[in-house]
Amino acid sequence: MNIMLFHSVYGLRPAVLAAADRLREAGHQVHVPDLYDGQTVDTVEEGRDLKDKIGTEELLRRAIVASAPYSDRGLVYAGFSLGGSIAQNLATGDEKARGLLLLHGTSDIAEGVSVDELPVQLHVADPDPFETHDWLSAWYLQMQRAGADVEIYRYPGAGHLYTDPELPDYDEPSAEQTWRVALGFLESLREH
Description:
Blueprint: E1 2-6, H1 14-25, E2 29-31, H2 44-54, H3 56-71, E3 76-80, H4 82-92, E4 99-103, E5 119-126, H5 133-146, E6 149-156, H6 172-190
Parallel strand pairs: 1-2, 1-3, 3-4, 4-5, 5-6
C-alpha cells in the first residue's frame, strides 16, 4: 500500500519515523511529510501554540501539497492525533483513497461528505481526554452515515499518544497490539 503518514502536534519526532519504518518493513511505501518544516516541540501546549501559529488551513494546504504527487495511485491516509485529523480530512475528500488509519485522533466530518465504503480503523486510549466517549459515538455514527466502514479499537488505561515511546503516555502492550491490528488492516486493503 501507498501510505501518507502525518505526525502529531509534537512534530515529526523519532516515533513517527520509527512507525514509518515499521510500515515499510511490512512492505508498504510510506511518505512522511513534515508539516512543521523541521520544528518539533516537547509539550502538548507548545504543540498547540505552534499549530495555531501555522494555522489549520495552512497545515491542510501543506498536507494536500505533500499528498498530491501520490494521490492518483490511491493512498491510505494515516496519522497520529492531529495527524489523524489531517488524514481524515484528506481521505474524506479524496475519491481514490484506499483507506484511513487513525491513531489517537479524529476530526469533524463536513456536512454532505460521502466516502463510499471507505475502510477506516481508529485506535484510541480509553478514556482519552481529547477523544471522549460522547465525541467518538457521534463521530462513529457520522462516519457510518457518510458511508465509511469503521472499526474502533480502545485501549483501557493507555495515555493519549500511547504509541510514542518518548512520551509519558507510552503504553508498550497497547502500542504493540495497535500495530498488530493496524498491520492486519493494511494487509486486508491490499486484497481489495
